[in-house]
UniProtKB/TrEMBL annotation:
The keyword Cell membrane does not apply. The keyword Repeat applies. SMART domains: ARM. ARM repeats lie at residues 3-45. This is ARM repeat superfamily protein isoform 2.
Amino acid sequence: MLGTIPPLVAMLDFEDSDSQIAALYALLNLGIGNDANKAAIVKAGAVHKMLKLIESPNAPSQAVSDAIVANFLGLSALDSNKPIIGSSGAISFLVNALKILDKSSSQPRQDALRALYNLSISPSNIPFILEADLIPFLLNGLGDMEVSERILSILSNLVSTPEGRKGISIAAEAFPILVDVLNWTDSPGCQEKASYILMVMAHKSYGDRQAMIEAGIVSSLLELTLLGSTLSQKRASRILEVLRVDKGKQVSENFGGNMSAAVSAPICGSSSSSTNPNGKECLVEEEGMMSEEKKAVKQLVQQSLQNNMRRIVNRANLPQDFVPSEHFKSLTSSSTSKSLPF
């Protein structure tokens, strides 16, 4: 209110790094918990001057770079600032800073990830994130438990747009990596976020669903419906439902034109079933078609349940020669599509 923000922003033009750092942390402190100050700092041109520091021929010190990352984190918390910061070129700087700080446990690394998370909330920033080639870097970072949940939070924002979903879909090994996260039983938060990403992508694209199946998602989802959190169980069930519908369609298409005959079967014997000698034959044909579809679905369920049992046995560190009981075999042999937790 006393008008100190514009002079502090002007100090970013000073040549000595001590003045720059002092000004940056003063601005950072003024913005904490105060949205009016966050807006005033951006309005005074701080974003442009910070990027000018980064792009200057004399590269700034690491301390100055870390202070700029911290400021972008604070300023990006305000929704009205998100598109301004995103379109300024700050995303490329944050991605580069993140890559430089990769595998370190420093606070600036966390700040850069959190700033990118804030910016990814705004759909208008997603094209800039894709241009910075952030997705492959994020996927490769999964497995580092210090940052994995934050990475998945960013990816959860990216799947909200078609461009973001495409960016994830075309990234190398994206689905095997995300499916693997479903098996992280010691990190339910990561499981919930990964299942959300896969659920959205499964609902939107047949090609992505096929890639998920090839990555072995079915057994992971079945295990998640048994052992995951309530939220993970619901999301896993949603994905299984979509995959089940796809499987049913594929079986139907395998019959080709014969399906039309199966659909018309009741008509040929409906009004005169007692007098039409072909009526019974048509009904038998229809039942045969349906039984083939049920057999295919039943086989899929049995395979999934057996694979799931093997995974659970491995996780339980049971002896390698462990054999499921006859009771379990009878359960899997008699299971139908209704036994899936939809």
